[in-house]
């Protein structure tokens, strides 16, 4: 038996948990992030009521699950098509024109997508949307880190650390990386490189210097990725026992495969998220 059971309770609250919502056509920035309730205050009241009536072994959080903006690998997937990409190009690092591995950066469009989400957050916060609290969680890949920065810089206080580099509010988590193996775009930079580029971010304890998990000849299965996300959620909710202030609203910036696994683990409607997209989910966590 797993220590925790997780499920979404977003039905009727967010459009992304409605099977009738078409992910290919839905624009979360133009639809209040998918909120179906009349106001953000109604959401806050609903979540507080869930928390106030919860059994001692039950907790609730709202997760804002973001996918990175377009990276150079995404650009090449569009160029060659999914089948040819998976069969051939994903195993290489370049086609002689574009470099996509290891650890590709955002394209100009990808930066624009993240900045569009920045403006959408400012608009929704002005309308009463809840600000994520405490730590912002992020994949170790450059495309996710740059998406987080372009989304939250200028909105989330202290995102670049305190005046002396302390009080780091962003935590890099290995568990949030994209599906591991075979695709060179999913091989990460070294710990030293990440720390040098982003000294104002915290890298989790135990984070290896080199990418010891990546293999050229083995790609992580969906079940294995689901297990990783189960472990991340367990970490997230178990943190509450040691925090002075328990966060209700949490930001996570990661990848399409990771967001698919969040949907699986949370028993959420499978909702493919476009580059630069985001889905909010209300999570019920039950300790067994």
TrEMBL record:
Q: Which InterPro entries match?
A: His_Pase_superF_clade-1 (IPR013078), His_PPase_superfam (IPR029033), PGM_Phosphatase (IPR050275)
Query: For this UniProt entry, what's an example GO CC term?
Result: cytoplasm
| GO function terms (MF aspect) | phosphatase activity
Superkingdom is: Eukaryota
Q: Name one Pfam family in it.
A: His_Phos_1
Q: What is this protein called?
A: Putative phosphomutase
């Amino acid at each position: 038996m797993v220590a925790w059971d997780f499920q979404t309770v977003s039905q009727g609250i967010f459009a992304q948990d409605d099977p009738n919502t078409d992910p290919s056509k839905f624009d979360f920035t133009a639809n209040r992030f998918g909120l179906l309730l009349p106001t953000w205050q109604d959401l806050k009241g609903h979540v507080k009521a869930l928390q106030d009536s919860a059994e001692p072994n039950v907790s609730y959080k709202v997760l804002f699950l973001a996918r990175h903006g377009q990276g150079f690998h995404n650009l090449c997937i569009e160029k060659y098509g999914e089948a040819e990409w998976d069969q051939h190009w994903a195993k290489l690092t370049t086609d002689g024109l574009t470099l996509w591995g290891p650890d590709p950066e955002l394209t100009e469009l990808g930066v624009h997508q993240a900045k569009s989400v920045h403006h959408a957050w400012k608009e929704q916060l002005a309308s009463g949307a809840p600000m994520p609290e405490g730590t912002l969680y992020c994949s170790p890949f450059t495309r996710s880190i740059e998406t987080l920065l372009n989304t939250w810089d200028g909105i989330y206080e202290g995102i670049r650390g305190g005046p002396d580099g302390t009080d780091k509010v962003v935590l890099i988590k290995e568990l949030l990386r994209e599906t591991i193996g075979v695709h060179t775009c999913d091989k990460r930079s070294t710990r030293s490189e990440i720390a040098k580029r982003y000294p104002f971010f915290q890298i989790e304890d135990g984070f290896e210097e080199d990418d010891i998990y990546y293999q050229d000849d083995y790609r992580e299965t969906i079940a294995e990725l689901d297990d990783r996300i189960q472990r991340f959620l367990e970490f997230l909710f178990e943190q509450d026992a040691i925090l002075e202030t328990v966060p209700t609203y949490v930001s996570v910036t990661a990848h399409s495969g990771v967001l698919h696994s969040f949907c699986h683990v949370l028993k959420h409607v499978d909702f493919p998220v476009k580059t630069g997209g985001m889905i909010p989910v209300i999570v019920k966590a039950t300790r067994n």
